[in-house]
Each structure stands twice: as C-alpha cells, then as structure tokens.
Write a sequence for this structure.
C-alpha cells in the first residue's frame, strides 16, 4: 500500500518537543538554517569542493536517520533548482527504486514551505535486510539558491520524527553570512 503523504499540506503539531534553529555554513552559498528538534543528534560535514552533508539521528535508539546533501550551483545557473527540474529528478529517482518496493506505483507529491518548494515520494522496502530501515521518504527541495537532496529512513510508518523532519524542511531557509 502506498504511504499516504497527507503531511504535505497539513500543519503538523510538534510531538518531538522543543526546537532550535541550527545554522550550517554552506561554502560560497551562505548559511542553511534548519529548525531542528533539540533532542536530535546531528553530524555536519562541509568541505569546499564537495557537497555539504547533514545527518540527523535520534538521541537514543535508531528509529530514524535523516540525510541532507546540500547542493549549490557554481555556474550561477538560473533554473538550477526550479520546481519542474526538481520534480523530474525526483520522479526519475523514484522510478529507479520502485522495483524494490512494496508499492507498484510511484506517487510524487509537492511540498511547499514559506520560502521553498520541493517534491517527495515514500516507499516501503519489500525485503529489508536485518537492521535496515523498512520505510523511505526521498525528495529534493529548493531553498534559496540551494538544492537539498533529502533521504528519510525510518522504522515506524507514521513516525512522529519523520513528521518533524518534513516540518523542518518546510521551514528551511538560506541566509547570507
């Protein structure tokens, strides 16, 4: 059964507790600001010639893993992260993964934030190996002149942590240094 992504247009109530804005410098592109639950542990890797990667996990346990790769254009390409390109890339990514999923049809949904737009899909692994995550939500989101490649891995279908992650992405913003 396809995971229903009703969270796309619904205002979610925070169940994870307090949040704090964490700022991540992105070389040559200012700062990415994410409003993150304070209970999450984060890992941040940024080097000048490689994409910045941000990883979030729970403070205890291994219920989820959130991976965000931040891309920026060095050529000043105007439509680098336009919605039509994002949607096409997400569809292509989903079609590549679909044969390994329980679902037989890919449903790509739009997610809008205050200052950003993205596209996401959710799939269920039909044969996860022991210790692997069963559920996947993946997509891309344009934030300022950045493109966030996002992978959400989780064990519980209606995980509050994943709802928090999607809320964090809707609220993401880019600022100058």
């Amino acid at each position: 059964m396809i995971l229903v992504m009703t969270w796309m247009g619904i205002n979610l109530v925070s169940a994870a507790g307090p949040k704090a804005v964490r700022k991540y410098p992105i070389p040559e592109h200012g700062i990415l600001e994410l409003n993150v639950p304070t209970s999450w542990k984060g890992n941040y890797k940024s080097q000048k010639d490689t994409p910045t990667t941000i990883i979030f996990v729970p403070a205890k346990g291994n219920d989820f893993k959130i991976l965000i790769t931040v891309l920026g254009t060095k050529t000043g390409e105007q439509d680098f992260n336009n919605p039509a390109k994002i949607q096409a890339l997400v569809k292509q990514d989903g079609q590549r993964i679909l044969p390994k999923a329980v679902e037989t049809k890919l449903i790509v949904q739009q997610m809008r934030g205050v200052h950003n737009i993205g596209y996401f899909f959710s799939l269920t692994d039909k044969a996860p190996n022991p210790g692997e995550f069963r559920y996947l939500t993946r997509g891309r989101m344009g934030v300022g002149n950045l493109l966030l490649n996002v992978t959400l891995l989780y064990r519980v279908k209606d995980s509050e942590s994943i709802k928090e992650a999607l809320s964090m992405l809707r609220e993401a913003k880019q600022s100058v240094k």
User: Anything to note?
Assistant: The radius of gyration is 16 Å. The helical segments are 83-97, 160-171. The beta strands are 19-25, 31-37, 40-47, 50-58, 64-72, 109-112, 116-124, 135-143, 146-154, 173-175.
